[in-house]
């Protein structure tokens, strides 16, 4: 009996040590390196959720890639909603700071993206709450760069940074 109590105690002690090492490592990884997220809604169709409400894509979000606010035109990014800080939204980067973009429904027909900001839009223009609604977005609201579709399995793929030709900035700031 004493021998089984000693084994149980050692097992419990080893479990606790592993737990107290694994949890901070996992939390740090998910906070600083990468995590997964389910994409809801039609704003990014056809790139994400092409099946509409029947399915939701699950994407890999790379936090590490945006740690220095280095994004490119065409990147699909996750960011904190400028209108609701408790919500994250996923959009495509259309223009960078200094670019002049022709808007689609914004109060101004042309907007010069200010320093420290980006212009983001959903791929499904009629169904997207984006910079055309709230204007340029501060780089400080960037959360992550969406790099891959992980689910459903038949849609596994790397997400390409492609800017639709009709959404090119009117004038680009030199890179």
UniProtKB/TrEMBL annotation:
InterPro entries: IMP2, LexA/Signal_pep-like_sf, Pept_S26A_signal_pept_1, Pept_S26A_signal_pept_1_CS, Peptidase_S26. One of its GO terms (cellular component) is mitochondrial inner membrane peptidase complex. Keywords: Hydrolase, Membrane, Mitochondrion, Mitochondrion inner membrane, Protease, Transmembrane, Transmembrane helix. Its EC number is 3.4.21.-. One of its GO terms (biological process) is signal peptide processing. It holds the Pfam family Peptidase_S26. SUPFAM superfamilies: LexA/Signal peptidase (SSF51306). The active site is at residues 43, 91. Gene3D superfamilies: Umud Fragment, subunit A. It is an enzyme of class 3 (hydrolase). Residues 15-104, 106-151 form the Peptidase S26 domain. It is found in: Mitochondrion inner membrane. The keyword Nucleus does not apply. One of its GO terms (molecular function) is serine-type endopeptidase activity. It is a single-pass membrane protein. Transmembrane segments: none annotated. Heterodimer of 2 subunits, IMMPL1 and IMMPL2. PANTHER family: MITOCHONDRIAL INNER MEMBRANE PROTEASE SUBUNIT 2. Catalyzes the removal of transit peptides required for the targeting of proteins from the mitochondrial matrix, across the inner membrane, into the inter-membrane space. Known to process the nuclear encoded protein DIABLO. Belongs to the peptidase S26 family. IMP2 subfamily. This is Mitochondrial inner membrane protease subunit.
